[in-house]
Design goal:
By secondary structure, the protein is α+β, with helices and mostly antiparallel strands. Helices cover 18% and strands 40% of the residues. The protein has helices spanning 29-36, 41-45, 47-56, and strands at 5-10, 15-21, 60-66, 69-77, 85-92, 99-106, 116-118, 121-123. The strands form three sheets. The protein has a three-stranded antiparallel β-sheet with strand order 1-2-3, covered by helices on one side.
Length: 128
Amino acid sequence: LTELRVIRTAPDTGVVSIHYAQFPEAWPPVWKAQWDDTMTVAIATDPVEALSWMNSAQWAATQELASEVTSLKFSVSPEAPLAEMVQIEVTVGSGPGAVELRSSASMRAHKIADLYMDGGVYYLAAPE
């Protein structure tokens, strides 16, 4: 869960924020490891599930990344949950002073080898 990031744009203000899990400092490492292992493919690949989890997590943290963003688009290849690359397109401001930025980054996909699909649904491990 500590690797999950939800990025949101507020269309009315243009503020882009990032939401993530931040466990309490006082927690012992075993608790943190146990909660980290509760990640599911649905949470990791479905924006609605990810956002629902972030809205319900008692240890969710939020950080503002940018303001005056008029457009923010993400795309991945190949399609999730097998994505290895994410492309980002951002427009800040409007009119002649608008700035368009494009970037991409590779994604850690160390769980890809563990994925299997059954009935169109991805799972992290085959049932025993």
